[in-house]
Write a structure and sequence with these properties.
By secondary structure, this protein is mainly α. The protein folds into two domains: 196 residues, MFS general substrate transporter like domains (Growth Hormone, Chain: A, Up-down Bundle), CATH 1.20.1250.20; 196 residues, Up-down Bundle (Growth Hormone, Chain: A), CATH 1.20.1250.20. It is built from 20 helices and three strands. It is globular and about 75 Å long.
């Protein structure tokens, strides 16, 4: 799917104030997909240890159950564009909402480990769809004057979804008396954690019926009259509708639909610029950022932190993630992409290095010594902060800007696929690596953070 984020012609009117509230509602409704993206990605954090004990499995098998959702993510991201171009962005959102709902119910009521893994694949497919559809739709309905700010709704919704999932998990754990397998409403606490996602999933589905289809898709489907109505809704009554429709049609006809073979060339299969994009995507994941969102509760419990406190620390880490993301959104255009990446890489090296040092000490009565425990906790928050204010946002900006128009869509697809694969590699390997040597695991992440320094 290609984006219709085509700039308005010089002198085009901005959306009138009376239309802006409606446009914000539309963008926020679409960004609910991003909220579910973040929520579904991180909610598993609260269930990891309970799943291990419920099914009596080792670290390797546990890691596969956690990481298997990423297979669905990759498939969903790879196919969402074509599905949306065939049936429309709104229908695609509705399918995603249904899949999120089904995944939540199935994950909350699994018969065995195999079907829990299956429901996680379904949820991953929905995540992949949401990661593609939300940004594209928002770009296609937003007036040019507000496109950048409205486009940031997606990333903001993702980090808020992560934070809310951790807050909900913490609340459910406390309601269950601090036991992840404690009973609530006839279910174990971890099942309720996974099932609660039904609420935002249903809300997302309902909101999708309250927002219009994108003008770009309507024009591609020959529904020009309806496209004009939507353009009037979001851009104001004074906009030249004929000119806007003609502009979108011209952009669609003049676009080069890049294909995989456009990326080939050079001495190493892909063109050098494509390898740079792949490298950025891989380094973004190889610093171990998703360990903080998938395994943080397990990590803190492994060094003696009380389960309830470990869930609370997962929530505070998510808040730091939001703060860092806001900082990045403010400064990415003011100080530049590369300086921000440099600041972030240095900060990540410090945070990860301190974590590696703290985890190198032997446990005393099942806990880290007090000093090392506090260093590990603070360093974890430092790491997430510097990732969020730099690589968490900057990589996507780089990828959106660095590729020539001729290969942009295909190159972005390859870079995104590399990111999902790298995410899977880190997620699937962490439990076994942590059992082997937690400190050296963080040394590995520190090395990758150092190598990411531009």
């Amino acid at each position: 799917m290609t984006s219709s984020a085509q700039p308005l012609k010089s002198g085009a009117p901005e959306a009138h104030p009376e239309h802006l509230g409606h446009v914000i509602f539309i963008a926020a409704a679409a960004a609910m997909g991003g909220f579910l993206f973040g929520y579904d990605s991180a909610v598993i954090n609260g269930a990891v240890e309970a799943i291990r004990h419920r099914y009596d499995i080792g670290s390797a098998a546990l890691a596969q159950v956690i990481a298997i959702a990423l297979i669905g993510c990759a498939i969903g991201a790879a196919t969402a564009g074509r599905i949306a171009d065939r049936i429309g962005r709104i229908r695609c959102m509705q399918i995603s909402a249904v899949l999120f709902t089904v995944s939540a119910v199935g994950s909350a009521l699994p018969f065995a480990l195999w079907d829990l893994a299956f429901w996680r694949i379904i949820g991953g497919f929905a995540i992949g769809m949401a990661s593609v559809i939300g940004p594209a739709y928002i770009a296609e309905v937003s007036p040019a004057a507000y496109r950048g700010r409205l486009g940031s709704f997606q990333q903001a919704a993702i980090v808020i979804g992560i934070a809310i999932s951790q807050l909900v998990n913490w609340g459910i754990l406390n309601a269950a008396g601090g036991d992840q397998r404690g009973e609530i409403m006839g279910l174990e606490a971890w099942q309720v954690m996974l099932g609660v996602m039904v609420i935002p999933a249903v809300l997302y589905g309902l909101l999708s019926f309250a927002i219009p289809e994108s003008p770009r898709f309507l024009i591609s489907a020959g529904k020009d009259a309806r496209a004009r109505e939507v353009l009037r809704e979001v851009e104001g009554d004074s906009v030249d509708l004929d000119a806007r429709v003609a502009e979108i049609e011209h952009a669609m006809k003049s676009e080069h639909k890049s294909v995989f073979k456009d990326l080939l060339g050079g001495s190493f299969f892909f063109k050098p610029i494509v390898w740079i994009g792949i490298g950025l995507s891989v380094f973004q994941q190889f610093v171990g950022i998703n360990v903080a969102f998938y395994y943080s509760s397990t990590l803190w419990q492994s060094v003696g932190v009380d389960p309830s406190e470990s869930f609370f620390y997962s929530f505070t880490t998510s808040i730091i993630n939001i703060v860092g993301t806001v900082i990045a959104m403010i400064f990415v255009d003011r100080i530049g992409r590369k300086p921000l990446a440099l600041i972030g890489s240095v900060g990540m090296v410090i945070g990860l290095g301190l974590e590696a040092w703290a985890f190198s000490f032997d446990l005393v009565d099942g806990k880290l010594p007090a000093t090392q425990g506090w260093v590990a906790l603070i360093a974890a928050h430092v790491f997430v902060l510097f990732f969020a204010l730099s690589w968490g946002v900057v990589v996507w900006v780089f990828l959106g800007e660095m590729f020539p128009n001729k290969i942009r869509a295909a190159a972005l697809g390859v870079a995104a696929s590399a990111q999902w694969i790298a995410n899977w590699a880190i997620t699937a390997s962490f439990p076994s690596l942590a059992d082997w040597n937690l400190s050296l695991t963080y040394v590995i992440y520190t090395v990758f953070a150092a190598l990411s320094i531009p």
